[in-house]
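Re: weekly structure request thread

Next one in the queue (488 aa):
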Amino acid sequence: MRLKVLSGKETREFTCHAGENLLGFLRAQGYAISARCGGNGKCGKCRVRVIEGDLPAGKDGFVLSCTARIEGDAFIEVFESEGGGLTQTYSSALETDGEDGFGVALDIGTTTLAFALIDMKTGKEKEKFGVLNRQGAYGADVLSRIAAADGGNAKALQDCILAQTRDALSRFSKMIPDGRVRRLAVCGNTTMLHLFLGKDVHGIGQYPFRAAFLDTVRIAGSELGLDAEEVVLLPSVAAYFGADAVAGGLAAGVCGGVCLLADIGTNGEMLLHANGKLYATSTAAGPCFEGANIACGTGGVAGAIDSVSEKDGKISYTVIGGGEATGICGAGLIDAVALMLKKGIIDETGAFTGGVQRFYVSEKVYVSQEDVRNFQLAKSAICAGIRVLLSEAGVSFSELEKLYVAGGLGFYLDPANAVAVGLFPSELAAKLEVVGNTALAGTTECLLSREKLREAERIARSAEYVDLSCSPAFMDAYIENMDFGNKI
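Done, posted below.
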């Protein structure tokens, strides 16, 4: 079979076998096609336009590539989801051991990968960039990736992340004098780190949720086929509290005072320092803050609407990268929901009023009733997690000095709207500080300083993990916070 593929302005031709799955074939050719439901035919993000040929397109000319089989010659148009991820970082302190050469920091997010090239002698950042994690073709969240690995795709998942890492190292090697990367420091949630090393993730997905490893890992880059002399994976706390949140706590300086870090992405990981102790927990917020399960959702990449407001009676929005709006990211969704509440388009229960079915932010990008429901589930999980963690540590709202908000959502977030829609307790409105990608910042610190890595290890080993999955208090708070009770 001959398959012609148009992506952007580029057209390529391929030979393929009859009966091949279209999404699998496109992915094998390197196309970054989003399939946030894991290829179950539910999210609609993997659809392609059939220009010519024998593919079962609908009336609109589109077909879901995850369910389509190649049965004859065809010409299709694909819509790739590659884009610039969140690389804006924050660090409370930066130290260096003064080693010669260059190193790379990598934050493996469930949705986005962020890379930074660092001069290890001076600590100066030479280059950084972000891309969407191509593992997204196997599902939007950690549980779907675990299911994919259990279903025989573990090697494919590892190959995805290693291929993207090789590409980044190759790109960076051209920017440094001898072309050699001395050290690659890596953080991510516990599942992402296991997939990176090709370790079994089955235990993470099954009670009692045990990881194959949690401690710092040091190996030669050659063991993974990576062009780096040494690879260092930062330590994690538990199966659902990973090295990304540990690195975030390090960068934000959470261990000083009574402070809470909320790293919000596909999962909501929270690290609290109070009374000389560290408390850690995570909530299954779901992937809506990173664009999955949202009709027009996308990650914080170029083309995403990242803020929404009303000016002179008209809807106004901004787009990451300044181009045409192709979707809406988590921060934009929060703003949109806040505006919908303010205008009475939805009521306190989240239901649309006046027979409206969709709220259009732009001509093509909208928020649906199902989007609002998914958002309510996610925001309630975060808010309930914060309330219960503070309660477990015996900390009142008034005693908390700072709430740092980090992660894929954090950089573009409007704190006032986040409180208005109930993502954060209203009592903490004045204590919010948005800090961007602290995971990448903390990983950079560990890349440069042995002492900082030891400090990360102390955080990981001393944190008391609070399991919310069996907490009646969490379930009560989760239900209580589902509606939109705060005034806009």
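The radius of gyration is 22 Å. The first strand starts at residue 2 and ends at 7.
Next request, please.
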